[in-house]
Design a protein that fits this description.
This protein is an alpha+beta fold. The protein has three domains: about 5-95, Serine Threonine Protein Phosphatase 5, Tetratricopeptide repeat, CATH 1.25.40; about 105-175; about 180-235, SH3 Domains (SH3 type barrels). It has eight helices and seven strands; from the N terminus they run ααααααααβββββββ. The protein has helices at about 5-15, 30-35, 40-55, 60-70, 75-85, 100-110, 115-135, 140-175, and strands at about 180, 185-190, 200, 205-215, 215-220, 225-230, 235. Strands 6-5-4-1-7 form a five-stranded antiparallel beta sheet. Strands 2-3 form a two-stranded antiparallel ribbon.
Length: about 240
Amino acid sequence: MIRRRFAVLIMLLAGTVIPHDAFGLTNGIAELEETALTIKNEAVYFNLGIEYLNRNDIGPAVLNLKRAHLLNPYDSEIASALSAARESIGIPAYFFEASPLERVIQFPLTVFALPAMAAIGIVLFAAGSAGLSLGLARIVEMLRARVWRIVSIVLMALGAVYLAGAYVRYGAMFDPAMGVAVYSGTVADRPDATALEKKDIAAGIECRIENEIDGYYFITTIDGKEGWTALTNIARVWK
C-alpha cells in the first residue's frame, strides 16, 4: 500500500476535507467500488473509505475502513482513520479496546497476520510430528528418545494452538453478522412501519445482525441499542 503522510491523519481528526491526491489515488469511487466487488483488498477498501470521508458520507466510510482494518489490523494509518470516522459520530476508541489482561492472553495469537499464523501452525505441527516419529524410532536410546518425544509433543501442541487460533480469527474476521448502518435511521420494537417505540441510529454505527424478517433486520448496535430497522439502512461488512 502506498504510504500516506501523517499530515493526512491530522486533517482527518480536525474534520478537514482531504485532497483527492493525498494518498496518491487515481481511481474514483465508482471504479473502486467495482474493484471491491471482485477482490478483498485493504488498499481498495481504505481508499474507498477515504473517498467517502471526503464527501462526509460517514456510513460507507466506516463500512470500508472497517473492512480494511479487518484485513490488515496492523496498519496504524487504517486504524487511525477508522477511529477518526467512529469518533465523528460519537463512538470513542475505547469501545473497541481490549483490557490489559485480554491483550496479554491474545498476544501470542495476534502478533502475526492470519496467513503467517496459519503457516507457523502448520510448520510447528509438522516439525513436532516428524520429531515424535524420530524419537519413537530411537527407542533404544531411552533418555534421548524421551527428550525428543517431549519436544515434539510441545511443538505439535503449539502448532495445534496456532492452527486453532487461525481458524477462530478467520471466523471472527469474516463474521457474516457484522454490519454497519450506511444511512441514519431508527430501530423499533417490531418489524413494520407502524412501530411506536423508536430510537435513532446514526449513519456509520456498527452493529450485529441478529435476525431478518420481511425487509427488516433485528440489530444490536455497538452503543447498546437494539431493535428492528429497514434492511436498506444496513450493509453487511461481508456479503
